[in-house]
Specification:
1426 residues; 15-stranded parallel beta sheet; 38% helix; alpha/beta
Amino acid sequence: MGNQLITEAVEQAKEEHDGLGIFTEGSKAKVKAKELQSALKKIKGDLPGLVEITAKSYKLKSVPVNVFQEYPALEVLSLGDNKIDKLPSEFKGVNVVELYLPQNAFKEFPFEVLASMPQLAVLDMGQNQLTSVPEPKGKEFLSLRKLNLEENAFTEFPCEVCSMTNLQTLIMSNNKLPELPLDVGRLVHLEELIVKQNNFEELPISMNQLKKLRHLDCSENRLTELPEDLGRHKLLERLEAQHNQIPEIPKVVCTLTQLTHLRLHGNQIKSIPVEIGNLTRLSELNLKENEIGEVPKEIGQCVSLRKLFLEYNQVRAIPAEIANLKKLLILILHHNSITCMPEELKDMRQLMRFSLNANPLDEETLAVIKEGGALALLKPLEIGDGNYSTGTMAGMGTYRRGAARRSTLGSKEDAAAPSSTSAAQPPGIKPKATGIQKGDVNSGQLQQAFATLLEREDFSSKKKHMLNKLSDDQKWELMEQYAGSTLELMKNRPGLQKKKSKKPTKDYPKMIREGRANRNVFAQVIKLLKENADNYLTTFVNSGGITAIVTWLSSLLRKEVLTIRDHTGMLECLSVLYTLTQLSCRSVITTSDCVNIVCQCTRHEKLRSRAVEVLEQISESLPQVGPSMVIEGFQAFGGVFPYQSLVFAMTEGNADEKVVALSLVNGLIESIDELEERYKLRSEFNRCGAQHALASVKSDFPQHDLLQFQRERWEEELRQDYDDLMCTTDKRRVLELSSSITPTEAGETLEPHEVRVSVAVYTLGQHEQYSEVVKRNTTVEELMGRMAREHGFKLQEYSLVGPGGKEIPRAATLARSGLDDTALKALECKMTPWECSIMAPSGHAYLHMLDPLATVQSAVRDFLASNPIDNKHEYSLFIPGRQEGTFRYLDEMKAICETSLKKKKYRDEVHLRPRPIRVRVKLSQDLFQQMVFDAEWRVSRILSEIASHVSEGTVSINVDEYHLVLQRGGGERVALDSEKLLSAYAIDEHSALVLCKIADTDTASASETDVDEAEDVDMWDEPADCPENITFEGAKEIKNLETATLNKLVERVTSTEEFDPAFMNSFLSMYHSFCTPVRLWSKLMQRFATPDFVPSDKKQKIWYRVCVFIKNWVDRETIEEPVKGQMEAFVAEQLAGKESLQIFASAITKALSSPKEWDQVHISEKPPAPLLPKNLGPDQGLTFFVIEELEVARQLTLLTFDTYRKIRPEEFFNQNWSKERTKHLSPNLNDLVKLFNDVTSWVASSIVLERQVRNRAKLLTRFIAIAQHLRDLNNFHMLMAFISAINTSAIGRLKFTEARLPKRSRQILLELEESMSMQSAFSKYRHMLADSKPPCIPYIGVYLTDLTFMGDGNPDIIDGRINYAKHKLVYSVIETIATYQKMPYNFVEVWSIKEFLVSQPQLSESDIYKQSMIIEPRGADRSLIK
C-alpha cells in the first residue's frame, strides 16, 4: 500500500508540470525505510529536479539514507508523523534548507548531524520527546533562522538554544516550562518569540535586549503582570498575553506605538488606560472576558482600529468618540451592561460585524436587533455618502474588465456577508428578511459549527466549559453574534451551488498551516470553494483556512531568500485568496493582516501580477473599506516609495495584467474624497514613475480599448483634480504637492556645479512631472529640448515659466536665470499664449492673449473679466463661416488649441457673439427634440431649418403652410414673426418651439370621418368602378388603389378575381380609422347575400372569399358585441347548411371562443446571468453607483418592452394619443410615452440632485454608459430618453460638470447624439434601425411624428371617398412597429432593480432648472462650485 501511495504522489507531482515537490501521506500505512529508499531511486528519472520531499504518516522508523545522494538539490525534507528517533550519519554536511521532523520519536536532539548542515534555516522538531539540547561549541547553527520545539518533554528551558544567536523565530509552546531564563536576552536577532501554554509567572528583565522583537506570544501562562521594560520593544507589532492573570493594562504598553495587535482577553483587567489613544496603528484590540466597566473616550484616537472585542465584560456605556473609528469593521459588545446605544454609533455604516445582544437596552432597540441583527441599527448608505471607488470612473461598462468578470460571478452572493447585510436578492425574488433560522440546519451541523466557533474565538477553558452547557437555542443566539455570515453559508442559498461530496474532504487548512500543501492541494481547495460542496466555503473559513494562508505567506515573506518551492506555494496561496475574494470578500478583509500581506507580495516579481488581481478584487468588491485597506497595506510595508511595486505592475506583464494594475491604481486614488489627499496620492505614484508607465501604455498598446480607457481615466482625473486645486489653493501649494522627492532624489549628493530642476509639464489633457539633475550652465533651450523629447510636445510652441509666472528666456543658463535652487524645483512648462484679435458686438477689436490649453468657455470668461463688454448676453467665440456673413461656433468645452484657432489665419478674426440658443422643438404631444440655433438668425430661417430636419420621403413639410409658435411654461403661446431675430424673444428653459399649420384644425375621429351612413348604399347597388367611387395610381390593381368608397374597399378585399394578402392585412389593421366593426360586418353580410343574377359558381367564390376574410378577422382581434353575437348567428344559420363552407364554420367558432395570444417568438436559450451588486444589503439600498450599467440597461429594456409589446394598431389612428378626449383609445401607447418622459425626468433629476461636481460628473458618466448599452441592446426608445435628459437646458448648462467628463464619455455621447439626430427626419436612426436585428424597441417618437405629419398633410376623405393611400402610409408605420413586437428580450428580470428604477425621484421641470442653478449658479467661478 505504501509503494502505491508513493507512486500516486509521483504522478501528482508530474501533473503539476514543475516536478519540484512530491507530497505523500501514508495514512498510518507501514513502510520500511528501504522500501522508501528504493522508491526514491526509481522515480529519479521522472523527477530529476526534485527540491522537496514530504513523506508523512508512514510509521517510518528510520530515514532513507540515499535521499540526498539521489537528489543533491533537495532543499526541503518533511518527515512528520512517523516513528523516527535519529538521523543517519549520511546526512552530515547536506545542503538542506528546511527540515521538518515533528510528531516523531526523538528523545535526543541530533546535534552532531544538524550542526553539520551549513544551510539549515528552518528546523521543526515539535511534538517529540526531547528533554535537552546540547550547547553549540563553535559556529554551529549560524544559518538557523527558525526553531520549533513546541510540545516536547522539557522540564526547564534549554538554555543551549540561546547560543543560536541568529535565530529570528523561536517556538517553545506547550512545554510546561516554569520560567524563561535570563540567557534569552542573547537572542538579539529574535523577531518572533512564541512561548504560550507554559507556566511562566513573569518575564525576565533580559528580554529588554530583544530590540528587534516584533511578535511576542506569552498567552496561557500564569503571568500576573507585564514588565515595565516592555516599553523598550519599540518595534513590537503583536502582543498576545491572553488567558493569564493580569489585573491591568500597564501604561507602558501604550507607549508601543508600532503595535498593531493587542490581545489581552481572558484576564482580570478592570479598566482601560486613557493612554490607549497613543496606539494609533493598532488594528485589533481584544479585551473580552475581563471585568472592564468603562471604555475611555480616548479609544476614538485609535484611528487604525479595525477589530474591537469587548464582549463578556461589565461595560455600561460606549463613548460617542467611538464613531471616530472610521476603519472599524468588527465591533463585538454582547453580554455587557450597556443601556443605551449612542447616536454617533449609527453612522458607522462601514461595520461588517456588530453585536449588542444580552445588554439591558430599551425594548425598541432589542426588537430591531432580534429582527435584523445589530447592523440593522445603523443608518443606510445614501447615494452621496462615502466614495464610489472603481465603480464610478470605471463607469464605461463596455471598457471595464470588472464588468466582464462579474458577468460570471454576479450571481454569487457574498458568502461571508453578515445576515443583516446580506447580498442583493436573487433575480425575480422580492426582498425579504435576511438571515436563516435555526431550523434551516440540523443538530449535527449546529454542534460542529459551535465547536469551531469556540476554538476560533479563543475562549478560556473555563468559558468554553460554561458555553458548552448552553441549550441549542442559546448556542444559536451566541453564534449569531460572531458568525452571522457563517450561518448564511450553512443552508442552500441560490447564489452558491451546494453539492454533496462523494468522499470526505481532507483537512486542507491544516495542511496549509503545516506547510504541507502543494499545487494539487490548492487546486482542490479552489475547486471545492467554487462548488461549495457540503458547505465547504463555511468549513474552510471557520477552520482558519484564510488565517493559515496569511500565516504561511507571512512566514515566507520574512525569509531572506525564497526557494522555487516557496514561490510556487505563494502563488497558489494568492490564487486561493483570489477565489475567496470573489466568493466571500468580507471574510478575507476581516482576517488579520491579510490585505497587508498581499500588498507585501507585490514586491516580489513572480507574485506581483496575482497579488494585484487579489487587491483589485478587494478594492472593487468593497468600495467603502477595500481601497483604504489596500492603501494602508502599501504604506505599512512600502518604505520611502510605498507604491513602487504597483508602478512596476503597470509596466510589466501583458496588456490584461496592466489593465488590472491600472484599474486598481485608479480605484485607490478615486476612493479618496479629500482633494489634496487625492492629489498627493497621485503625486506619490508619479514619483514612482507612473507617468513613464502610462506613456509606454499609450505607445505600446494603442488599440487595446480597456488599457487605453484606464490610461484616459487617469489623465482625466489628474486634469480635473489639478483644475480644482488651482481654484481652491495657490499655485505654489499645487507645485509643493506635485514636485516632492522622487526615487532618484533619495539621499542624493550634488556637486557644486549641479542642480536639480523639477518642472510641471502641461500638455493637452495631461499634467506630468519632469525632474532631473543638470549642470548649472545648461541653457533653458537645452532643458526644454530634453522635456520635449520625453513628453512629446513641439519645442517651438512651449515656454518655461518661473514661480512668479514670468517667462524665462531660452538663451539664458540656469545659473543666470535669476532663480535660486528652491525656485528651480517649482518651474512650469506650458504652451506659449496666442495673440488674437477679438471683435466685440460693438464692432471694436481687442488684442487678447489666449491660453491654448484653456477651454473656449474659460477663455471667454477671462476676456470678459479684463475688457469692458456689456454682459447682457451669454457670449461665446466664433470664426467666419464659409459663406459671407455666416459664423462658425467654437465648441465651448474644447481647448483653444483643439479648435480652428490652431491655424494662425483665424486668430485675427475671432468674433465675440451671443451664445447659440438651445431650445426644445415640439414634434408631437409630449415628444420634443433639442436643437441649437444661432441667436442672430431670423425666425423664417429657423422654420426652414426645422422643416428640413423633419422632411424625408413620404413626410414633407411645406414651409408656406406652417408657422412657428413659442410655447412657454405657463401654457402661453406666442406666434413668432418670421422677420424677427430669435434673440428678440425671451426664451427660457421651459420654452418650446411648436410647428403649427397656419389653418390648424384637429383631425376628426373615426366616427367623424366615416361616410355618412344616411347616404350609404347597398353593396350590390353600388355602380361599377368609376372615378366617383374608386381611383388608382397607375394600373387598376389592388396595390395601386388610392381612394374608394367603403363598398368598393370591401368588394376588393373579398374579390374573386384578385387576391392580395398584403391588402387584406392593411385593411384589417386600418379599418377602425374609417369605419366601425358594426359597419364592416354589415358590409360583409351585404357582400355575402349575393343577388339571384350572380352566377352560382361566382356565388360560391364570393362566399368563400367573405369567409376567408372573416376567419382572418377573428384570428387577428377579439370580436366584441354586438358583432360577436351576429357572427355566431351567421355561422349557425348561413354556414351550417352549406357543406363547402363547413370548414370555415368550425374554424370561426373556435377562433371566437379562444383567447388571443400575442404573436411572439419563444426563446429556449438560457438567458445571461444578471449582474447583481456585490456585498450590498437591502438596508443600504441600491444606487446607480453600485448597479452595473449593463444591468440597468437590461432592466430598463425589459420594462420598456413589456409596455411596447402591448400596443395595438388602432392606438395609432387619428392621433388619438395626443388629444385629451381620445387618449383613452391609446392606453399602451400613452404608457410608453409616459415611461419615456419619466425616465427623462429622473435622469435629469438624479444629476442635479448630486451636489458635488465630482460625483455629479461620475453619475453623468454612468448614464452615458447606460445609454451606450441601450444602443447595443437596440433599445432606441430609452436611448432617446437618456439623450433627451442629458440635452435638457438644465443639464446642458452644467459646464463644470461637463468639463469633468472623460474624453471617451464625451465622444460616446456625441456619437449617440449624432445617431439619434432629427436631421433629415432621423435618417441616421432609420438606417441604424434597418440594420438592427431583433429584439429591438424603436424610438416611438419618430413614428408619432411621421403619423402627425401624415395626418396633417393628408385628408381622410377626398370627394366622399376614403383616402386609402393615406391609410397605407399609416399602415407601413404600424407594420414596422408590429414587426419588433414579436421577438422578446432574453434577460432575467431582477425585481429589486426594476423597483429601484421605477421609484426614482422626479422633480418638476422648473424644479430641475432651479436645482441646476443652485449647484452651478450662472456666472459662478470654478472656486465656488463644490
